[in-house]
Amino acid sequence: MSERLGGKLLAGSRNLELFGSELDRIGAGLSRRVTADPERLEKGLAQLVLTVVELLRQLMERQAVHRIEGGTLSAEEVERLGQTFMALAQRMDELKVEFGLEDEDLNLNLGPLGDLM
Amino acid sequence: MSEQPASARYPAQGGRRARLDRDVTLIELLDRLLQGGVVIQGDITLAAADIDLVDVSLRLVVGAVDSVGRDLRGPVRAAVEAG
Amino acid sequence: MIYVYAVTEGVPSPAARDGVGLAAQELRVVAASGLAAVVSDHPGGLTSPSETELWAHERAVERLMADGAVLPMRFGSLLPDEDAVRALLNTRRAELTTGLARVAGAIELGVRAVWRSDGGEPEQAPEDRTSGSGYLQALVGQRRRARALAERIDTPLARLARDSRHRLLLTANLPLSGAYLVDRERLDAFRTEVVALDEQISQAEIMCTGPWPPYSFAAASPEAA
């Protein structure tokens, strides 16, 4: 391992930009935990609260997807749930704009919890 | 396996390519160092305190969501109507 | 405070533990229960972390891997004093020993796949907001496509690995993020397979990074992390 001081990239270098933009989104949450740069630290209570709401929103959507895949929701329930999630997503979009937050600001990237199903 | 730095592998775009390589590698590193490894239940003081607080409280919330699980409509609707 | 980089089985050789860690502090060893913790001393605590400190941790762990099995600590692992380090080794001896056996002779390789927008697959990001069902079914489809891609990529790679961890859809365009525990001598074969998969699969780009110390396999299972 010590002979490879330097790059860790073994494959995939042809279209690194594709990875770059996606990884930036998940990286922001991680970077926040190590940077001392005050400008990159949290933008206050709104970021905190909206991060929690966003996490719950994503978790609940994922749980709904899981239940649809398992066939335990009726068509009517799917439609009603979907309407609720759409409204929630819409509300989140509005709140993000209102508080000047980007998706990356609300990404805590909880690791093992990042994919429950 | 190439031993050259990214900028040498792609001379025409040296700076940009090297930066991308570095950024991608850094996120891979962060992912591992911050979310992997053995966890010591001691003082972990290097993260901003309130981010850790959110981290801990979210794990408790996630536990609750998991176990409640069944009726999704109630809490989601409540959140939407309250918001 | 004592910063802990990793746990090894037995004391590492002077060559492996040579060098400095965070804040240019010398590495040293605290031993107990047949295990060794590689540490450095920071009596004044630690300043805010930076990219430099991350790499200092990483390089220290990498150097240790020249000797044998290494269980890397999470970044930021601080204990109050040497007694606490010995207590860690004593009370968690079984778990640490099992962990060392789990990773001995292996390194970690990271694999990620990103959807190509021109690879013939429909753009993954836009949602369907025409109806509630449309909205959720689009998410179902997204997860199904991600799972199918993940299985296609994982099947040949798992054959070359001892163990793996996967996360689907960290973002809509990142269907797969995986970590593989691979015997050192299989690294090249694994990389060759990733390159081959990348060429075979037109809808996605596949990236491989490493070799890394086995951070993702330090715990017995994802839930135990």
Overall description:
- The complex is a heterotrimer of chains A (117), B (83) and C (225).
- By secondary structure, chain A is mostly helical.
- Helix content of chain A is 57%, strand content 3%.
- Chain A has helices spanning 16-32, 45-69, 75-99; one strand at residues 9-11.
- In chain A, helix 2 runs antiparallel to helix 3.
- The longest helix of chain A has 25 residues, at 45-69.
- Residues 1-5 of chain A have low confidence and may be disordered.
- Chain B is mainly α.
- Chain C has 225 residues and is an alpha+beta fold.
- In chain C, 36% of the residues lie in helices and 28% in strands.
- Chains in contact: A-B, A-C, B-C.
- Chains A and C meet through strand 1, helix 1, helix 2 and helix 3 of A and helix 2, strand 6, helix 5, strand 7 and helix 6 of C.
Short description:
With 117 residues, chain A is an all-alpha fold.
Distance between the termini of chain B: 53 Å
The coarse overall form of chain A would be extended
Helix percentage range of chain B: 55-70%
* Unreliable stretches covering 5 or more consecutive residues of chain B: 42-54, 66-73
- Per DSSP, the total helix count of chain A is 3
The chain-level mean pLDDT of chain B equals 61
| Main β sheet profile of chain A | none
Give the oligomer, counting copies of the same chain as homo and different chains as hetero: heterotrimer
In terms of structural class, how would the helical and strand content of chain B be classed? Answer: mainly alpha
Core attributes:
heterotrimer, A: 3 helices, 57% helix, extended, C: alpha+beta, 5-stranded antiparallel beta sheet, 4-stranded antiparallel beta sheet, 9 strands
